[in-house]
């Protein structure tokens, strides 16, 4: 399998301390002992705080880090550090920025096993998946390194030999605020385009997953970024609000829930700051009976069970054409039963624990509610994770559901797939779009005209045909409706981290009307 290929041989010839450490780490061992804030090119203790947080290892429930939440002064220090770096970085050519990003990508690739291990320890996702996350992360930096050298404006000829031109300029100090489900990858999706465009960044990860983004900060420094180019502050809502309200912040890129996104937008509006909002979803996946059956079943699993179902773009409303409903449901149940749940650091585990106990309880409440709301639950299967003392995953394909059920309407953010029967294309399109969200959608069909017609009709920013939840960095990603706006990934992300200046040049005399 592509993702399990051998690590570069160089790692075994020149073992570094962190590499040796990563191979010996198992669940229940890691304890953070270093400061988790990063500014001016090094780890620091915050100068002030608004409370304290603890981060856990989801598979054991052990506290792995205790840290102060950055206060207003620390947030300001980080922003001043970013401002200093911005003055240097904005003067660099695209090729110079590209070299730093490429070197950072190379270091991530070289340290990928260590980074994936830390991501697994702090988030609970399987090491198998964490490796994919890290691979996408370095690809993101490589991709934006490639674009950095070719960012250019336009030259426009005007009458009488006059002309104008446009310059694509950075915004300044950008703030990134991330969710806990893809801690390292979200930071790369934001910092890659931001730094390529010449900005500096202050990043705040979720307090649940504070560990790996600091490793990213160290990697940028090692790669040659000026001190202060990428800074990390730690904390929860209060720290996030200091960032969003700071007068010297030029832009906020946020990944998280709809209610928090709404608050971010409100704060940003006070300072007329542009925002990118990557929010939640309740995405539809439509499976027509003419689909390749095995691909459709595999697609539905990919759409629901990665990262224990804690994925924003998951296709959790699986609409299945009635004539294949029973066969499809049976096959899903069979395959779900085989998913290996357990210690996420073990090679054959495909699902680890949920992020924490409140999340588990939230998910189980949705499942309980679903059982109460519908009497004809065709399938319900719960597997317990024997190795996790703290909390378990439950896998629950629920069929057949109705559109008005709570578990079908609300984002669960857990491994729960709702299966909904449908009869016609027109009907399913209307039902699929009947949601306030619009992050992603999918369609499985062998009829190419129908597949494209349905994709065109779906109200979602990211549509998959005959696959689901693949995220090539070359493709823009983002939502319609309450799932947010702005785009990450793809060339278009450049537009969200830069501004256009127009220069108008007069080659003749000024003809005054006065
Ligand atoms: N669209 C995407 O790309 C994407 C990706 C991952 C997760 N998500 C969504 O994120 C949600 C789960 O993540 P979560 O629970 O971390 O979301 P969340 O909204 O609770 O928190 C996200 C981040 O915002 C911070 N925050 C919370 N309140 C804040 C405030 N008032 N001001 C500033 N910052 C604040 C948090 O500390 C965290 O860093 C789900 O809804 C999921 O769909 C979306
Ligand atoms: O959780 C949503 C999808 C995603 C993956 N990486 C960043 N966002």
Walkthrough of the structure:
The chain has 514 residues and is of the alpha/beta class. The chain contains 17 helices and 19 strands. It has helices at residues 10-13, 17-24, 72-89, 94-110, 112-123, 127-148, 183-196, 212-222, 237-245, 258-270, 293-302, 325-338, 357-373, 406-409, 425-433, 448-457, 493-496; strands at 37-39, 42-44, 49-57, 62-70, 155-157, 163-170, 173-177, 200-204, 230-232, 251-255, 275-278, 284-287, 317-321, 396-398, 416-422, 440-444, 462-465, 484-485, 498-505. Helix 4 (94-110) packs across helix 8. The relative contact order is 0.13. Mean pLDDT is 91; it is low at 1-22, 375-383 and 385-390. It binds nicotinamide-adenine-dinucleotide and ligand L3577AWF. The ligand O=CCc1c[nH]cn1 binds at residues 181-182, 185-186, 189, 311-313.
How widely separated are the two ends? 75 Å
Number of helical regions: 17
Number of strands: 19
On the 0 to 100 scale, the average pLDDT is 91
**Largest sheet features:** 6 strands, mixed
Supply the helix-strand structural class: alpha/beta
Strand composition percent: 15-25%
State the shape: globular
Q: Can you list the strand order of the major beta sheet? A: 9-8-7-10-11-18
Round the Cα radius of gyration to an integer and report it. Answer: 24 Å
Specify the helix fraction band. 25-40%
Low-confidence stretches: 1-22, 375-383, 385-390
Which small molecules are bound?
A: nicotinamide-adenine-dinucleotide, the ligand O=CCc1c[nH]cn1
Chart the SSEs and their pairings.
Layout: H1 10-13, H2 17-24, E1 37-39, E2 42-44, E3 49-57, E4 62-70, H3 72-89, H4 94-110, H5 112-123, H6 127-148, E5 155-157, E6 163-170, E7 173-177, H7 183-196, E8 200-204, H8 212-222, E9 230-232, H9 237-245, E10 251-255, H10 258-270, E11 275-278, E12 284-287, H11 293-302, E13 317-321, H12 325-338, H13 357-373, E14 396-398, H14 406-409, E15 416-422, H15 425-433, E16 440-444, H16 448-457, E17 462-465, E18 484-485, H17 493-496, E19 498-505
Parallel strand pairs: 7-8, 7-10, 8-9, 10-11, 12-13, 12-16, 13-15, 14-15, 16-17
Antiparallel strand pairs: 1-2, 3-4, 5-6, 6-19, 11-18
The ligand O=CCc1c[nH]cn1 binds at residues 181-182, 185-186, 189, 311-313.
């Amino acid at each position: 399998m592509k993702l399990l290929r051998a690590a570069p041989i160089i790692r075994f010839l020149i073992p570094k301390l962190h590499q040796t450490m990563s191979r010996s780490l198992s669940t229940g061992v890691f304890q953070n002992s270093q400061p988790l804030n990063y500014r001016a090119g090094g780890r620091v203790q915050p100068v002030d705080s608004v409370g304290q947080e603890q981060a856990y290892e989801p598979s054991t429930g052990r506290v792995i880090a205790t840290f102060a939440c950055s206060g207003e002064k620390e947030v300001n220090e980080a922003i001043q550090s970013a401002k200093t770096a911005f003055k240097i970085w904005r003067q660099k050519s695209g090729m110079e920025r590209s070299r730093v990003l490429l070197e950072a990508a190379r270091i991530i690739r070289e340290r990928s096993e260590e980074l994936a291990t830390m991501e697994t320890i702090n988030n609970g996702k399987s090491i198998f998946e964490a490796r994919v996350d890290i691979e996408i992360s370095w690809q993101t930096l490589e991709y934006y390194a490639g674009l950095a050298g070719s960012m250019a404006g336009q030259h426009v000829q005007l009458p009488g030999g006059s002309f104008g031109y446009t310059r694509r300029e950075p915004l300044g100090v950008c703030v990134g605020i991330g969710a806990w489900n893809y801690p390292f990858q979200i930071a790369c999706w934001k910092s890659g385009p931001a730094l390529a465009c010449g900005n500096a960044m202050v990043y705040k990860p979720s307090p649940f997953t504070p560990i790996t983004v600091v490793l990213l900060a160290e990697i940028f420094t090692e790669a040659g970024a000026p001190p202060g180019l990428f800074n990390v502050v730690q904390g929860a809502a209060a720290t996030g609000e200091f960032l969003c309200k700071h007068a010297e912040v030029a832009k906020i890129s946020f990944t998280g829930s709809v209610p928090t996104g709404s608050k971010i937008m409100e704060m940003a509006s006070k300072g007329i700051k542009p925002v990118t909002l990557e929010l939640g979803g309740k995405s539809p996946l439509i499976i027509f009976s003419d689909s390749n059956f095995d691909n459709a079943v595999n697609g539905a699993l990919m759409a629901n069970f990665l990262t224990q179902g804690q994925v924003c773009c998951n296709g959790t409303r699986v609409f299945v054409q009635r004539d294949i409903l029973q066969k499809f449901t049976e096959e899903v149940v069979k395959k779900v039963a085989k998913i290996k749940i357990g210690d996420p650091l073990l090679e054959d585990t495909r699902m680890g624990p949920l992020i924490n106990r409140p999340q588990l309880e939230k998910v189980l409440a949705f499942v309980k509610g679903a059982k109460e709301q519908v009497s004809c639950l065709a399938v319900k299967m719960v597997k317990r994770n024997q190795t996790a003392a703290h909390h378990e995953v439950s896998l629950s394909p629920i069929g057949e559901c109705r559109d008005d059920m709570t578990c079908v309407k609300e984002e669960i953010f857990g491994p729960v797939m709702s299966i909904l029967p449908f009869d016609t294309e027109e009907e399913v399109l209307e039902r699929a779009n009947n949601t306030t969200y619009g992050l992603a959608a999918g369609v499985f069909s062998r009829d190419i005209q129908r597949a494209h017609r349905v994709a065109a009709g779906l109200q979602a920013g990211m549509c998959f045909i005959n696959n689901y939840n693949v995220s090539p960095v070359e493709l823009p990603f983002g939502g319609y409706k309450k799932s947010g706006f702005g785009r990450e990934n793809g060339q278009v992300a450049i537009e969200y981290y830069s501004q256009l200046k127009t220069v108008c040049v007069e080659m003749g005399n000024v003809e005054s009307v006065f």
